[in-house]
AraC family transcriptional regulator (Saccharibacillus sacchari), 308 residues
Amino acid sequence: MAVGMEKTMTFPRQLSKVTNRTGSLQDTGLSAITFCQQNQGQIGSYFLQDHLLLYIKSGKYQVRFRNQNYTVRDNEMIFIPKSTLIEYDKSGTPESGYVLDYMMFFLDEKLLDEFVQFAGLKPIESVHQHVPVSILPVTPLTRTYFESLQPYFYHADRIGDGLVKIKLMELLVHLTDTDERFLQQILEPGNPVNRSIHVVMEENFTHPVSLGDLAYLSGKSLSTFKREFQATFGTSPLKWIRNRRLEQAEQMVAGTELSITEICYTVGFENITHFSKVFKLRFGVSPSEFRQKARLERMAAIELNEQV
């Protein structure tokens, strides 16, 4: 099945459903997970609720972020801001015997703010243009840190929450001390400034976004976003999203051969029963009946053209 046609997972909320992990750690504002597996190729997608720091020990992990592709390889990292859909293509490489070994750290806004205060970080004048995403090399010191973290994953039930947070703070100190680009990303994690609400909605209506996500992506406070949205569209964001998803579903049911379940997940619904119910309320018939009706209408039009 192609990318985007399966149900998109939401991270870190649904990390517990990931079955091929080799270890995980959790604390308030932090989720970390490690993988080590034979993998000759896997594609998929997930929606980021929190910022992601991805470290690749061996293998290749390609992500698509806001229409840009980034490939992370052996001993590299990438920091990706929250509230976005990530499409990925990951695999081991022949050099590593197709072993894909990597760690994912999910960091919420509160935790990053706490670290900035703890470390006494201040905005910096940098020669580098700020970009929300970049590939970061792993230094020998940082690589040693990642190796030291492995026992924590394997014995997570013995590790207290406070120690998890201390280890995470240690990682952030390493990274901000050794890489100015990462320091910029921590201080300015890609929050857009005054983006068009219409553009934000069109880009994200199929994603499992919250109102907080949409406000963040438009560069506005939640209250300002709600007020401007109502003034622009004359309805609530949730009603607009549902109607826009149904419009997209109508086109796909009538014009594609995708299954109804695939269409349900592709347009952003997470439950096929709920999707069928709201589709029928909007169009008067179920998705399957709508598809059959559209086919009969096409056949009738073809026959009419042949007679002419």
User: Anything to note?
Assistant: The two ends are 40 Å apart (CA to CA). Residues 184 and 295 are 54 Å apart (CA to CA). The chain has two domains: 9-187, 197-307.
